[in-house]
Please model this.
Amino acid sequence: MKIALDAMGGDKGPSTLVQGAVRAARELGTEVILVGQEDILSRELSRCGAKGLPISIKHASQVVDMAESPSDALRRKKDSSVRVAFDLVKAGEAKGAVSAGNSGATLATAMFTLGRIKGIRPAIATLVPTLKEPSLIIDVGANVDCKPHHLLQFGIMGALFVREFLKNENPRVGLLSIGEEGSKGNIQVKKAYDLLEASNLNFCGNVEGRDVFKGEVDVIVCDGFVGNICLKLSEGLAESVIAMLRNEIEGNFLAIMGYGLAKKAFKRFKKRVDYAEYGGAPLLGVKGTAIICHGSSEPKAVMNAIGVAHNLAALNLAEKLQASMSNRRDILRII
Amino acid sequence: MKIALDAMGGDKGPSTLVQGAVRAARELGTEVILVGQEDILSRELSRCGAKGLPISIKHASQVVDMAESPSDALRRKKDSSVRVAFDLVKAGEAKGAVSAGNSGATLATAMFTLGRIKGIRPAIATLVPTLKEPSLIIDVGANVDCKPHHLLQFGIMGALFVREFLKNENPRVGLLSIGEEGSKGNIQVKKAYDLLEASNLNFCGNVEGRDVFKGEVDVIVCDGFVGNICLKLSEGLAESVIAMLRNEIEGNFLAIMGYGLAKKAFKRFKKRVDYAEYGGAPLLGVKGTAIICHGSSEPKAVMNAIGVAHNLAALNLAEKLQASMSNRRDILRII
Model:
């Protein structure tokens, strides 16, 4: 089972991406197709001493710029590395695709190339660390303007993901809002509350901001605008608190030791919040396996993302989602 | 200049609130009117040894429950402590009111009793610590469903607050969104971006979640749903990270020392994020001074809130806001 890697996208260039692919092949045994400019990629591959590993190269002549508009990229760059990677999935030559490139373009390309499950708004799901088991936040950026029934769809997709991927038989689903009672929230969220409550999900009601990291639910549903802000706020907060701590320390040996330890723990925390470390964020709701990574992903994160793509493809998650959705036409018709 | 304190509201009861009032009178020299059940309050006052301090009592026979619906409270409890406190402001007997009671009811009572500045959506503003100077986040909970021009109004009110209260002549205003460019965000935020850019504010563009605590802007504009979630997420994250740190420590002496220091620094951080510690959150856009405190406010937070109410009243902030808004009828007509 092969996974296609957009080996040109990302802030760190092909070298980092190829190293991640080599680690995936070597440490996880995953077959990888590197997609991008052949000369560059074969040079990087030989540098890594990747001989004998199950890695092949598929040439793509174009590269989508990190700042390029997704629609422009989709329209004008039909031979871009990200496009060719998803074409391989569509053609059945790869079982999933991973990109650390321009995330808007990756999203648009995945939706266009693989197609959406009928009636569904694909959403980006990301696992975050909590005091207990990790929780899945869905959506963290694909849909900035949602209707209440889209939030219901996110809940259904999130629950299926957690059931299949984390082997949690009865995932608890919560709705991100500003108070515990169903009467709290904005119009969108209050309507979504009723839909989730009427569904057959294990719906546990609203989750407030202060409870996101407590791990009381397995799936946290929100729109992509709110989810993206929360995710980035969490990353940024860890960084800022470390800097604030540093400002408070002045020469005290124990304080410096404490600061060092706290800093390490924070970095660990930040890495855990950072979805790249968890192996990228799956795009759920498209007909195939698509993983979106941070632009700044290190080889380890790229390896993990390839591993997640492999596992999701092996689980046939996209097919299961599609089957589950087509059995539940009720949720698609809601307006 | 007297400040009315709802001395019955809050999770901790009249004793804590009266202690806060006594500290405000003693340490800040502020005149306070305690509003609530006279027998209880005079007993608490004598317990505190408050003789000679400029504190008086105004009787109010009812108390709004922490879980009561704001509209019920407003309709049925016309002699509640929070209502009588705001009535005192309306009547000119106090220059501002402070409540740590049911915040929805406080909000509704302040808006009903004092009245809104014409055409304006009142918003709750709160100062948060950053790597540099504190930033003001507005709105953190008064308006869960906003139009783009409401976000512009929040920007204008926030900038005026920072100019007057923090003596910052040219506050930088940012819009909370999911990318730096004006083209990033949901429909509401993209339209608000254009309005803010066309205004005479010192608008610095979008602020992403990861930059909230960096202090690059002085005012961060968002709707009350997003703002409330961000504020609570920040509080909860500090708590959860401390608990995660604890889980990682196993008997290592230095690690325990480090943990102790990190924990202290965190508690400090949490207090700084907690708006009660900053002296409560002002409700901007009503015709008078109203301060909303956390239900769990300690005496120090109550004292600080009374101090902030006094300072805002002395600055005539509400009057200045009203004058500034009536000079700018353009912003009220936008749809």
In short: DSSP finds twelve helices and eleven strands in chain B. The two ends of chain B are 39 Å apart (CA to CA).
